[in-house]
Write a structure and sequence with these properties.
The complex is a heterodimer of chains A (about 190) and B (about 140). Chain A is mostly helical. Helix content of chain A is about 85%, strand content about 0%. In chain B, strand 3, helix 3 (about 75-85) and strand 4 (about 90-95) form a beta-alpha-beta unit. Chain B is globular and about 35 Å long. The chains are: A mainly alpha (about 190), B alpha/beta (about 140). The interface between A and B is medium-sized, with 16 and 15 residues.
Chain lengths: ~190, ~140
């Protein structure tokens, strides 16, 4: 083992005998020697140190390059993720807009259907009331004509009475049905 | 060969690259690598005013953008040159080659600008040849591309 009492030369030669090679910039401080054994040993130390440093430098550069690539990839990934999030938000907004438009269209369709139904009912009612009024007027006119002309009015009396009863009943029935339909439609 | 050299750079891997390259090229005997300009500032503040016993480095390499530090490389050079009495060869080492930044560095007293790349050794070798000119201030500002 090397002792503190050893000279630098002894210490270096002991290291050489154990095949221990010093490295780092310390070798550069010891490179100026006139002793052949020590000089050869230090030259070997320097050569090994240079080789090791070259290897380490190559590895470090490789790692540095990979780190840069990873950092660049991370930046690209982050940008892609942000883009994806933005697209998702846009998609969500579009979906909501589409749903709103669909609801609006359904509502419009329903209103239109109700309106059409109501118009149809209105036409039927007008037609039915027209027929009822027409038949009523015609029968009454016929009845008045028979009364004024002194003809036998028994049959027309019975017919007029029956017809008017039926017409009034039907009129109220139609009006009642229409009111019911209108009420139900408005409630929906 | 430079006895003491200081590197201020936030990238720890570059510390290793720089130390190995400098050792292989016999540029410096002792390298102190710091990862923040604040730390460098504290050291220079402690060494100022100029004290014969201080351990101020003979040469300082500063990165342009030192992430996590209060000052960028140009401000660091300005502080060393103007606030802490200069006394060392100083310049920028950066992957940037932005002409505006180079002019700014020159203005605050940087003596050189070394562009970092995968192959830093040829630039450091060229710097080594010019070093004496920086010490006696006879070399003009130079960009090592």
């Amino acid at each position: 083992m090397i002792s503190s009492k050893d000279t630098v030369k002894d210490a270096l030669l002991k290291a050489k005998s154990k095949k221990v090679y010093i490295e780092g910039n310390f070798v550069k401080l010891l490179s100026d020697t006139t002793d052949d054994d020590v000089r050869l040993y230090l030259d070997e130390c320097k050569r090994r140190d240079q080789t090791n440093r070259k290897k380490r430098l190559a590895v470090t550069k490789q790692i540095q390059k990979q780190n840069k690539e990873l950092e660049e990839a991370a930046v690209v990934n982050k940008a892609l993720l942000t883009d994806l999030e933005n697209k998702m938000e846009e998609l969500e907004t579009s979906k909501k807009e589409a749903e709103g438009l669909r609801d609006e269209a359904l509502n419009d369709l329903e209103v239109m259907q109700k309106k059409t139904q109501f118009e149809l009912i209105s036409i039927i009612v007008k037609l039915a009331l027209g027929v009822i009024a027409g038949v009523g007027i015609l029968t009454t006119v016929l009845y008045l004509y028979i009364l004024s002309s002194g003809l036998d009015s028994k049959i027309i009396e019975t017919t007029w009475s029956n017809l008017f009863g039926i017409l009034l009943t039907n009129s109220f029935s139609i009006v009642g049905t229409i009111m019911g339909v209108k009420y139900a439609t408005e409630k929906d | 060969m430079i006895d003491t050299l200081m590197l201020i750079d936030d990238e720890n891997l570059f510390h290793l690259v720089f130390e190995d390259a400098c050792s292989m090229l016999d540029i410096a005997l002792s390298i102190e690598a710091l990862d923040s300009s604040d730390e460098a500032d504290r050291k220079f503040k402690a060494w100022f005013p100029d004290d014969p016993e201080h351990e101020r480095p003979q040469c300082v390499f500063v990165d342009l953008n030192i992430i996590g530090s209060s000052y960028d490389g140009i401000e660091m050079i300005r502080k060393i040159n103007e606030d802490y009495g200069n006394g060392c060869v100083i310049g920028i080492i950066s992957s940037s080659s932005d002409q505006t930044e180079i002019e700014k560095a020159k203005k605050v007293g940087a003596q050189f600008w070394i562009i970092k790349s995968d192959d830093i050794e040829p630039r450091l070798e060229e710097f080594k040849e010019d070093y004496d000119g920086y010490v006696d201030k006879t070399n003009p500002f130079k960009v090592y591309r």
